[in-house]
């Protein structure tokens, strides 16, 4: 016969201590990575890196604005954005501790038409595709990282 006992009060205390000690740095690093990964994945989609998303001209201002936004968010790719104008791609951080937000944006005036389509242009769906991939990858990565933090705290 197998018997299992869990002291939920102790477990909750341990989790709270872990969040207080490691939470803010963990959240800050993950949000930064999510923001830069999103911009990097949009660039991949624009360049035709996903078979279910139409390729656009992968050398222009729109693509480079996403590179600029990714670099501002802390992208590790180190790509240059020659065609982007100043302010085309942005990343703004707000909050601190466990409540951090980084907003990445492409401010190119025709970006909406590239993403959602227009009278003579089918929808690109690059941002939506990138968010889907980033969400999937981040969920897996965060689970593994949290497990590592939890095991290291015991």
Order of helices and strands: HHEEHH
For the largest sheet, list the strands in their spatial order. 1-2
Give the DSSP E fraction (strand runs of 2 or more residues).
Answer: 5-15%
| Number of strand elements | 2
Which ranges are low-confidence, i.e. pLDDT below 50, for 5 or more consecutive residues? none
Structural Rg: 20 Å
Helix/strand structural class = mainly alpha
Describe the structure.
By secondary structure, the protein is mainly α. It has one domain. It is built from four helices and two strands, in the order ααββαα. A two-stranded antiparallel ribbon has the order 1-2. A hairpin with a 2-residue loop joins strand 1 (89-96) and strand 2. Helix 1 (8-46) runs antiparallel to helix 2 (61-73) and helix 1 packs antiparallel against helix 4. The longest helix has 39 residues, at 8-46. It is elongated, with a radius of gyration of 20 Å. The model has no long low-confidence stretch (mean pLDDT 86).
């Amino acid at each position: 016969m197998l018997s299992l006992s869990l002291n939920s009060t102790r477990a909750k205390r341990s989790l709270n201590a872990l969040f207080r000690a490691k939470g803010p740095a963990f959240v800050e690093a993950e949000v930064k990575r999510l923001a830069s990964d999103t911009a990097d994945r949009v660039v991949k989609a624009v360049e035709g890196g996903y078979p279910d998303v139409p390729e656009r001209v992968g050398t222009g201002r729109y693509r480079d604005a996403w590179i600029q936004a990714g670099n501002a968010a802390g992208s590790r790719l180190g790509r240059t954005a020659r065609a982007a104008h100043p302010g085309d791609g942005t990343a703004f951080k707000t909050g601190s501790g466990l409540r951090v937000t980084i907003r990445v944006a492409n401010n190119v005036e025709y970006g909406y038409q590239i993403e959602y389509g227009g009278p003579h242009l089918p929808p690109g769906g690059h941002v939506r595709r990138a968010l889907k991939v980033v969400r999937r990858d981040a969920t897996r990565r965060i689970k593994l990282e949290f497990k590592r933090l939890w095991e290291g705290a015991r």
